Amino acid sequence: MDARTVVVDVADMLARRVVTGEYAPTTLMPSVRQVAEEFEINRATAQLVLGRLESQGFVDAKRAKGFVVRDVRVDGGMEVYCRLFQLSVTASPGIASEMFEEMVESQRQILADAFLAYTAMCDEGSLRQGDLHDDVDRLEALARAEEPDHVAILSLELALIRRIMGTTGQAFQRATLNSIGATILSVPEAVAAYFAVSPDLHVLMWRAMAAVWDSGSAPSDAQLALFDDLLGLYHQRVLSKFDEIVLPAEQVDEEVAIDFATA
């Protein structure tokens, strides 16, 4: 087996132990010698494994002490968050479910803010809609394919939103959305969850928004409330689908029972 593959595989196994809590924050990771012995690799390779975990943000190297486990959910940045989510899907589905809900809710808020800001600019007559309509046409063609490419559809939607946010000057929110989008696209289970309903719904949402923008007038309060409700319902379906995919069936049933009890 290629040495680089060994480093990646062993580092992922150790990272999953961090995810599941087997290696608790502030405790020491196994030493280079211990890693070499457990996985039957040489010490140079074991050192590379621990170095990879450090570069990914799972541990900190402390002089004369070793590698200390970080509290990745508290101290990690977006790259660590992304890797943590990827590993959690199989290693700790409950954590993955919580993280996915956080991402979906953040994405929902960013989308709502971006659409409102863009709509306000349309009301001022300062935007051209031609390119936007061309992208929505491409989106519809992807959605109506015999076997829709879900990754391609989500990627095009992200490109559409980035274009809108570039126009409205929401640079920080766009960077955040980019990180969320890259994370979702890297996890097949998350991509599948976004198609809990037909791909046609994605197109219908964009057509509806384009119609508002084309009208040249601000949407009514009722239209805004309806859009927010529909977006909320859609994202709730996405969350439920993700849980259905990654969580044990009995845990999903338990969550449904709790939802009914608190409704």
SSE inventory with pairings:
Layout: H1 3-20, H2 32-39, H3 43-55, E1 59-62, E2 66-69, H4 72-75, H5 78-91, H6 93-123, H7 130-143, H8 150-168, H9 171-185, H10 188-193, H11 199-215, H12 221-246, H13 249-262
Antiparallel strand pairs: 1-2
Helix pairs in contact: 1-3, 1-5, 2-3, 5-6, 5-9, 6-8, 6-9, 6-11, 6-12, 7-8, 7-11, 8-9
Domain HTH gntR-type: 4-72
InterPro entries: Tscrpt_reg_HTH_GntR, WH-like_DNA-bd_sf, WH_DNA-bd_sf
Pfam families: GntR
Task: Explain how this protein is built.
This protein is mainly α. The chain is 76% helix and 3% strand. The protein has helices spanning 3-20, 32-39, 43-55, 72-75, 78-91, 93-123, 130-143, 150-168, 171-185, 188-193, 199-215, 221-246, 249-262, and strands spanning 59-62, 66-69. The protein has a two-stranded antiparallel sheet. A hairpin with a 3-residue loop joins β1 (59-62) and β2. α5 runs parallel beside α9 (171-185) and α6 (93-123) runs antiparallel to α12 (221-246). The model is unreliable at 255-263 (pLDDT under 50).
Summed up:
The longest helix is centred in the middle third of the chain and has 31 residues, at 93-123. 76% of the residues lie in helices and 3% in strands.
CATH topology of the largest domain: Four Helix Bundle (Hemerythrin (Met), subunit A)
- Number of helices, counting only DSSP H or I runs of 4 residues or more: 13
Largest sheet: 2 strands, antiparallel
Taken from the alpha-carbon principal axes, the silhouette is: elongated
Poorly predicted spans: 255-263
Q: Report helical residue fraction.
A: over 70%
Corresponding CATH superfamily of the largest domain: GntR ligand-binding domain-like
Strand order of the largest sheet: 1-2
Radius of gyration: 22 Å
Strand content: under 5%
**DSSP strand tally:** 2
